[in-house]
Write a structure and sequence with these properties.
Layout lengths: L9 H10 L3 H30 L3 E2 L18 E6 L2 E6 L2 E8 L4 H12 L1 H16 L3 E3 L17 H4 L4 E7 L9 H23 L8
Helix pairs in contact: 1-2, 4-6
């Protein structure tokens, strides 16, 4: 199945879900979600697999066991291909990449690399290039400086990160429902490669606990 764009009712489906996040709404419109959201997302991931690797769509159901918000369904369809991310929702299309969450051992390796002048300045330059290309840098950050680092460290802002990624969003438009949506994702993921490579080289996957 070749990706031709998300269905015409994709945004309408999520607009409705934002207004009525209930089992009744979902059950009545599940076929709409499958046709206009899930199936196109599967086709998009299949198209992208040769370059970016196999993808996976997140479950549409929220884990509400420990959440104050007991809404049962996610208000976006997200999917990953390695460390790359794509999402469709009532806000349109989003493409992102990086480490959305980092374990304590990853954070430690990240800060060691940022502290090093060569590797830290390399990351700063890559992030500056992403911002110049129109992407937004984001991630969880400490409000204060991390323990063990000087207050006048030249890359203190980077050292505060506990996760790091970049993203770009397009509001709902005609391209969302056309093959051009794939081109947007591909272009963004390619732009994100330098960040992904830095993180893979200097941080890597989380350690497996025994």
């Amino acid at each position: 199945m070749t990706f031709t764009g998300f269905g015409e009712d994709a945004v309408e489906f999520y607009d409705g879900l934002l207004a009525d996040n209930s089992k009744a709404y979902w059950t009545d419109r599940k076929a709409m979600w499958e046709k206009h959201v899930r199936d196109p997302m599967e086709a998009l991931l299949a198209d992208l697999e040769p370059e970016f690797g196999p993808g996976k769509i997140f479950r549409p159901y929220r884990d509400v066991r420990f959440a104050k918000d007991k809404s049962p369904y996610k208000t976006a369809c997200g999917a990953t291909a390695g460390a790359f991310y794509v999402q469709v929702s009532a806000e349109g299309l989003m493409a992102a990449g990086g480490y959305y969450q980092m374990s304590p051992d990853q954070v430690a390796r990240f800060r060691t690399a940022v502290d090093d002048d060569r590797r830290g300045e390399d990351l700063a330059a890559r992030l500056a290039a992403l911002e110049k290309a129109g992407l937004t840098i984001a991630g969880e950050r400490l409000k204060s400086r991390p323990r063990g680092f000087d207050a006048d460290h030249p890359r203190l802002d980077l050292l505060r990160y506990k996760s790091l990624y970049a993203w770009r969003r397009w509001p709902p438009d005609d391209v969302l429902h056309e093959p051009g949506a794939r081109d947007r994702v591909v272009a963004t993921w390619r732009t994100l490669r330098p960040l992904q490579e830095w993180l893979a080289d200097h941080v890597g996957p989380a350690e497996q606990r025994p």
